[in-house]
Amino acid sequence: MGLRTKIKKFLYIRKFSKKKYLTNINKKNILITGANSGIGLALTKRLLELDNKVLAIYRKNSQNLTNIKDSNLSIIKYDLRKINNFENFENKIKETSIDLILNCAGVFGPSFENQQIESLDFEKFQEVLMVNSISILKIIQIILNNKLSKKNLEILVNISSDAGSIDLNKEGNAYMYRASKTALNSITKNMSIDLMARFKTIVFAIDPGNVQSGMNPGGTLKADVCANLIINLISSNVRLLNGKFVNLLGDELPW
């Protein structure tokens, strides 16, 4: 790693460093998608430490979740790629009131080379759209049809990406990933108006930046640091974030 890269990495990490985090999230029922790895796993562990009950959604591999020995953790298998694969999730939450949703599930899709126009696989494109954006609508639909949850859902946070910002796009390519995150941002903004008016639910999107995860193993920021910063955002003046797209420090980004 060159000196310039090391300095850039140091400054990036320093930008997000905090001596103390606000942790006002406790005694809540929290639903986390993409919970078996990366940001979702880090949030699951930290929120359990803060004495919350966590319903953790995973698609295929649950090993990291099953290694957590905590009676407040419930794990749910739910393949977000498939619109009709929701019965297990629906049955699991029938008698549960959800206070907070952290939608961390995400996939990049094929490599950059295979997201160029000439090589787009439209079946894969549909899968990426399902996981990264459309699936949250299905989850919210199920929850709003649950009499317990629809009255108590306080906050919905969608983990997005600056790659979904139309205004910030200066590089092109990555059609599947960019389009899916742009769709998620649009859904976020729409729900922030709809759910706030109907249930006083706060809805916003976060760009976590360059975080280590299964999708981005070379990321600069540790997932547990990212999780603390997300919890800090939710713990402080969260009502001001409704309908916004922000970074981990709460700075607003263009849609």
Keywords:
single chain, 255 residues, alpha/beta, Rossmann fold, seven-stranded parallel β-sheet, 7 strands, 39% helix, globular
Folded structure, characterized:
- Strand 6, helix 8 and strand 7 form a beta-alpha-beta unit.
- The two termini are 33 Å apart.
- Strands 3-2-1-4-5-6-7 form a 7-stranded parallel sheet, sandwiched between helices.
- By secondary structure, it is an alpha/beta fold.
- It is built from 8 helices and 7 strands, in the order αβαβαβαβααβαβαβ.
- The chain has a domain of 170 residues: 3-Layer(aba) Sandwich (Rossmann fold).
- Helix 2 crosses helix 8 and helix 5 runs parallel beside helix 7.
Overall mean pLDDT stands at: 91
Rg computed from alpha carbons, rounded to a whole number of angstroms: 18 Å
End-to-end Cα distance, whole Å, is 33 Å
| CATH topology (level 3) name of the domain at 78-247 | Rossmann fold
Query: How does the overall form come out from the CA principal axes?
Result: globular
Number of helices: 8
Largest sheet, in brief, is: 7 strands, parallel
CATH level 1 name of the domain at 78-247: Alpha Beta
Unreliable spans are: none
CATH architecture of the domain at 78-247: 3-Layer(aba) Sandwich
Question: What is the percent of helical residues?
Answer: 25-40%
The count of β-strands is: 7
The CATH homologous superfamily of the domain at 78-247 is termed NAD(P)-binding Rossmann-like Domain
Order of helices and strands: HEHEHEHEHHEHEHE
State the strand order across the main sheet: 3-2-1-4-5-6-7
Q: What share of residues are in beta strands?
A: 5-15%
Structural class: alpha/beta
